[in-house]
Structure formats: structure tokens, C-alpha cells
């Protein structure tokens, strides 16, 4: 338990998020509770509810920190180059991060929010900033005139990668295949890139055919 002293609101917020992340990292999402976090930082649960609307709000804040950390890991792995060179590096960074932060990533993917809970703008901003790293890698396939298609392609790939990881993390992957998460992620990347290049090659041909 942290030694209690007079902290301001921002300090308690930082302490609470750090404690929540530590609990989830060491024991999994099922161990997380407002009472547990409050006890660990030396304050009452009532103090936490002055900072967070409820436990779901606390979890959302924890997930926001996780997204920020993932984005930094992806940026570190990103570099100038062809998508075929850079995308596998991003996938490797994703797998390393999510493996090292397994429980935190499961918390993000599996949080069951109440139906009435609307994701706030600050959270969507973190999602968009994370996705923007992938969009920049895929941009050569689309160019400035097709930003919407690039956004969609990035999210399709992202969902596929999440799905593979989630199956592996749940222990259900062997019901589908004997390949590992890393093997399937590499295959997804290879097939996705091949599809992008094929689409890129087909577009001029389709345009020329329509203008004969």
C-alpha cells in the first residue's frame, strides 16, 4: 500500500492508473476492483469515485494508457520504406507489445461496457492516432485521393490481426489450426500485402479498359 499523504487530484489519478495497471499485469482483469486500487494507493474507494464515474470508466482510462504505449511501440518500429518492408516490422512490434502486456491487452479487447456507455472523444482520439501509424504505412497503395479507402484497409487488417491474437490468447487457436499466432500473423501480412499490390495493379488496367 502506498503511504498516504496529501496528493492533488492529478497525482491521485496517476497513482490509481498505475496501481490498476499493476494489478491487471500481475493478476489479470478479474482481480481489478475499485476497492483493490484504492487500498493499494492508500485512499478510500470514495476517493476513486471522485475521479472516475465507475469501474468501467477506470478501465477505459487504463485502456487509454495501453493504447498510448502501443502507439509509441509502433512508431518506434516504423521507418521510411515500402509497405512490404515496414508492415512486417509493425506486426512484429504489435506481437511483442501484446505478448509482454498480455493481460492489459486482453482487458482492452474484452472490456464489456454497459450498453449506455458511449466511448468519449479522448478515447477515439487515441484509437485514431494509433491507427494513423498503420495508415501511413499503407498510404502508398492509395495516395492522397483515397484516404477513406486507406482508413478502411488499415482497420480491416487491424481487426484480422486482433482476431488472431485473441484466439491465441484464449487458447482456442488449436481448434482452427496448428500454426502459432506469429505464423498466422505473418501469413495475414503476406496475403494482405499481395492483395494490395494486386489491387494496385488492377486499377490502371480497369481505368484504361473503361476509356478505350
Which features characterize this protein?
disordered C terminus; 9 helices; mainly alpha
Question: How would you explain this protein's 3D organization?
Answer:
- By secondary structure, the protein is an all-alpha fold.
- The chain has nine helices and no strands.
- It starts with 8 loop residues before the first helix and ends with a helix.
User: How many DSSP E strands?
Assistant: 0
- Given helix and strand content, the structural type is mainly alpha
> What composes the largest sheet?
none
Helix content: over 70%
How is the topology of this model organized?
Blueprint: H1 9-27, H2 34-41, H3 45-48, H4 55-77, H5 83-100, H6 102-110, H7 121-138, H8 147-170, H9 181-210
Short description:
The protein is mainly α. 72% of the residues lie in helices and 0% in strands.
Amino acid at each position: 500500500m502506498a503511504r498516504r499523504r496529501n496528493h492533488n487530484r492529478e497525482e491521485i489519478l496517476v497513482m490509481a492508473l498505475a496501481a490498476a495497471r499493476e494489478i491487471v499485469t500481475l493478476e489479470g482483469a478479474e482481480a481489478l476492483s475499485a476497492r483493490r486500487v484504492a487500498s493499494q494507493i492508500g485512499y478510500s474507494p470514495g476517493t476513486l469515485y471522485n475521479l472516475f464515474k465507475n469501474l468501467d470508466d477506470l478501465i477505459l482510462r487504463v485502456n487509454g494508457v495501453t493504447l498510448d504505449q502501443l502507439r509509441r511501440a509502433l512508431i518506434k518500429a516504423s521507418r521510411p520504406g515500402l509497405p512490404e518492408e515496414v508492415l512486417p516490422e509493425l506486426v512484429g512490434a504489435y506481437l511483442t507489445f501484446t505478448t509482454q502486456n498480455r493481460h492489459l491487452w486482453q482487458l482492452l479487447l474484452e472490456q464489456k461496457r454497459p450498453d449506455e456507455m458511449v466511448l468519449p472523444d479522448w478515447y477515439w482520439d487515441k484509437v485514431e492516432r494509433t491507427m494513423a501509424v498503420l495508415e501511413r504505412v499503407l498510404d502508398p497503395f492509395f495516395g492522397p485521393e483515397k484516404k477513406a479507402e486507406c482508413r478502411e484497409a488499415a482497420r480491416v487488417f487491424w481487426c484480422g490481426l486482433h482476431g488472431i491474437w485473441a484466439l491465441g490468447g484464449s487458447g482456442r487457436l488449436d481448434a482452427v489450426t496448428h500454426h502459432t499466432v506469429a505464423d498466422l500473423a505473418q501469413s495475414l501480412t503476406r496475403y494482405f500485402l499481395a492483395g494490395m499490390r494486386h489491387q494496385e495493379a488492377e486499377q490502371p488496367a480497369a481505368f484504361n479498359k473503361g476509356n478505350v
